[in-house]
Amino acid sequence: MKRRDFLIRSTLLGCSAAASPFMTPVALASAPWDARLVVIILRGAMDGLDMVRPYGDPDYAGLRGGLTGGGVGEADLDGFYALHPSMEPLRPLWQQGALGFAHAVSTPYRDQRSHFDGQDLLEAGTVGLDTGRSRDGWLNRLLQSVPGVSGETSFALGRDQMLLMRGDAPVSTWAPESDLNLSPQARLLLEMVSHDDPLFSGAVTDAVQIAESLGLIDVPETALDAQDMVTQRMKDNRKQAANGHMLLADFAAARLKEEARIAAFSLNGWDTHKGQKNAINRAGTQLAEVIGGLHDNLGPEIWGKTVVLAMTEFGRTARLNGSAGTDHGTGSAMVMAGGALRGGQVWADWPGLGEADLYAKRDLMPTRDVRAHAAWTLRSLFGIEQSVLETKVFPGLDMGGDPRLVL
């Protein structure tokens, strides 16, 4: 039996082989650039009209007064837009020019309003889903287009199989659910079996160190009886469920401080059909914590080279429904952060919220392709040629004018 097969099949390791970080490449490689990119998919269709409130539009209060409670007060950003309360902890980044938003944006997806198709189109980066290109993601095609980039340069984080990172270019993955609670005996066995394999031994060492740094290796199982082990695992599961978004942010920051240059993961909870006020507050709080965590953990030097793009599959209806929520819509907003961002502003060709201005008389009208903002970020951050972006990374895209998102 091969050493790797033995390790996968061994029941002495006390971990899930399918989810363990040492079952994927952990060693990192250099890239032909020094900038960093984090892409966050906001699953469920974020309501851009709530997260970045265009209170200066004369029709906004009539459409959304039930959510905002009237005025915006200290939430004001620039005299027209206001920040959702859940994002208020990020105001210092706004003031520093390290937080910004693009409004009235969307993918080319229209009218069907399916989460699955909308997310696939967002991650594929294509005009439609009826082509072979929709089987891979735009970040993976970016990696395929740049010589000298290896799979270890980028990480797809989380248990989801992200279409965004799928394709011919190899990509490393890691999930916060990884269980690496090794007993001392199992850890010794792992080190002994992998000792003579320089590549696998290095990966094992890195995996254990990563798990330790994230607090995933806690109490040795030999110190616990059976009931204590069950109780400890239940506590660990609850902790991971509550803090999974921060584990993703912490891991991404740790890798980006080394040799990784791209990280991607998703945050759920943006589907707000009813009780939107509470639901979007929870989701927005998580997003704010993730961005704040990346800022704090990356440190000034790396943060200054980083751009964070948070994108969603489509927006919500302009009007509230009967359940104090919003239904699937079209135009939404894009959240951007990072020290390399030319932030402190909202990029938008604002369409208006009068009934005649709405898409199909129900949704925020998109005036810019969200892919164009992502493409211009790649152009400015990594120096990717515009022709490559419009034909290979985002086939069929017209990038339009440069919004100057990056310093």
TrEMBL record:
<dbReference type="InterPro" id="IPR010869">
    <property type="entry name" value="DUF1501"/>
</dbReference>
<dbReference type="InterPro" id="IPR006311">
    <property type="entry name" value="TAT_signal"/>
</dbReference>
<feature type="signal peptide">
    <location>
        <begin position="1"/>
        <end position="29"/>
    </location>
</feature>
<protein>
    <submittedName>
        <fullName>Twin-arginine translocation pathway signal</fullName>
    </submittedName>
</protein>
<keyword id="KW-0732">Signal</keyword>
<dbReference type="Pfam" id="PF07394">
    <property type="entry name" value="DUF1501"/>
</dbReference>
